[in-house]
């Protein structure tokens, strides 16, 4: 099943609750939450207090993208704040296996993210132990950037690795996804689609519904 994960980073923060309710009504199964530390990435976004406070706005799955150095330090805090999926960057974890295990042991679902220039082969050992791989299709840190086309080949390669090993791991794409390029991303093999500005610029409910309409074709 293709899943929409609207990225709250693109939302109007003065009406966060309303905006989350809008994408929830449109049928988005995940809510993508970008935590940034100003060190792994050049900007700072939001953290646990915001995640905990919006937990009351929706029952949807919280897909937390940790753009943070050594995110293993925050696993317990993420659990308390209401995270369901915790996605850590391969480039930010000195002991990726330990961090993935920590997330699983805390009762959450582990995922690993790769920057655009990090090859998918680096995941060959950890792939059986994660529930999702996030392929960054922009350099992480900001919404509204342009999709980097060579990441489509990474999705295809990852799809082959997952299928060859008979795994169930999801493939998430994040950055520069619009209605105009989402179909080629789906055809490459992604099944979990993060959209920030493409949903939250303008009417979030309608934009999310437009993505869901395309997904229905692929889910049929
Ligand atoms: C960027 C974040 C994304 C971002 C996507 O570092 O990881 O989730 O919000 O925004 P768009 O869809 O506008 O590229
Ligand atoms: Zn993200």
TrEMBL record:
Could you name the Gene Ontology cellular component terms for this entry? cytoplasm
InterPro entries with a match to the protein in the record: Aldolase_TIM, Ribul_P_3_epim, Ribul_P_3_epim-like, RibuloseP-bd_barrel
**At which positions is substrate bound?**
7, 65, 141-144, 174-176, 196-197
- Name any cofactors this protein relies on: Co(2+); Mn(2+); Fe(2+); Zn(2+)
Example of a GO biological process term: pentose catabolic process
The record's listing under Pfam families reads:
Ribul_P_3_epim
The domain of life is Bacteria
Q: One MF term from GO for this chain?
A: D-ribulose-phosphate 3-epimerase activity
Cross-referenced PANTHER family: RIBULOSE-5-PHOSPHATE-3-EPIMERASE
Which NCBIfam families does the UniProt record give? PRK05581.1-4, rpe
Identification of the protein by name: Ribulose-phosphate 3-epimerase
